[in-house]
Specification:
Largest sheet: 7 strands, antiparallel
CATH topology of the largest domain: Thrombin, subunit H
CATH architecture of the largest domain: Beta Barrel
Radius of gyration: 19 Å
CATH superfamily of the largest domain: predicted glycosyltransferase like domains
Order of helices and strands: EEEEEHEHEEEEEEEH
Strand content: 35-45%
Number of helices: 3
Number of strands: 13
Oligomer: single chain
CATH class of the largest domain: Mainly Beta
Length: 228
């Protein structure tokens, strides 16, 4: 019946899960992921009610991604609620190293964004046309030259117009933006709508330098820990 095209790995790993449950309450908890693949997994030990179609965040180690709940069953007292989850488009599996297949290797080619997205913490300020609303000082966790994703339990509604301010070295940049994705309890995707092409290019190069710096720092830290 279930003709999955991807290879499933029979292992159990500990993950962190968060989002908004079926009762509209935010939650954050540990759970077990099994039957994993680059496309999804089965989660067990969930304490909060969820339903098919909900979007949740899942983290393994320092990697995290957004998933859609595709099925829900009551696993009993021991396993509690069990979920089948499928990764959302343009997300990278947080357990990719455990579930790498030929399918996973070619998947990135499907991403036709002009600018690659970088999974780094990037400080920015979100403002509103309504001057009475408080501006949000936050971090994007996924950003490229044309947009970003901000993790928040209370995302703005689809179509909300915002102003985005951020720094590139010593230069302050401001642009307009529109909320293009709103995942309750997880976060929101914002498109930059008024950045000139040359500013987009400069931002992308700035992000590449930041990403490379983070990678070098992580490698140096790993080498230091290995020598300890």
């Amino acid at each position: 019946m279930d003709k999955r095209p991807e290879t499933r790995v029979a292992t159990v790993i500990l993950v962190r899960v968060w989002g908004m449950d079926a009762d509209g309450r935010p939650f954050f908890q540990n759970a077990n992921a099994s039957n994993i693949s680059t496309e999804g997994a089965m989660l067990s030990g969930i304490n909060h009610p969820l339903k098919a179609g909900d979007v949740i965040g899942v983290q393994h180690g320092d990697k995290k991604a957004r998933f859609k709940v595709v099925w829900v069953v009551d696993g009993g007292a021991a396993r509690k609620i069990e979920l089948g989850v499928q990764i959302l488009p343009n997300q990278q599996s947080p357990w990719l190293a455990l579930a790498t297949t030929e399918r996973a290797e070619v998947a990135p080619a499907k991403n036709k964004r002009r600018y690659a997205r970088h999974k780094i913490l990037f400080p920015l300020e979100i403002g509103f046309e309504d001057s009475h609303r408080t501006h949000m000082q936050t971090n994007a966790t996924d950003i490229g030259g044309r947009g970003c994703y901000v993790e928040t339990l209370l995302p703005l509604q689809l179509g909300t117009k915002v102003t985005i301010k951020f720094w590139m070295d010593s230069e302050k940049v401001q642009t307009s933006g529109v909320v293009r994705a709103s995942d309750g309890g997880v976060g929101m995707g914002i498109e930059f709508t008024q950045l000139d092409n040359h500013v987009q290019d400069r931002l992308q190069k700035h992000l590449e330098k930041m990403d490379a710096g983070v990678t070098r720092h992580a490698s140096a830290k790993s080498a230091t820990n290995a020598d300890s």
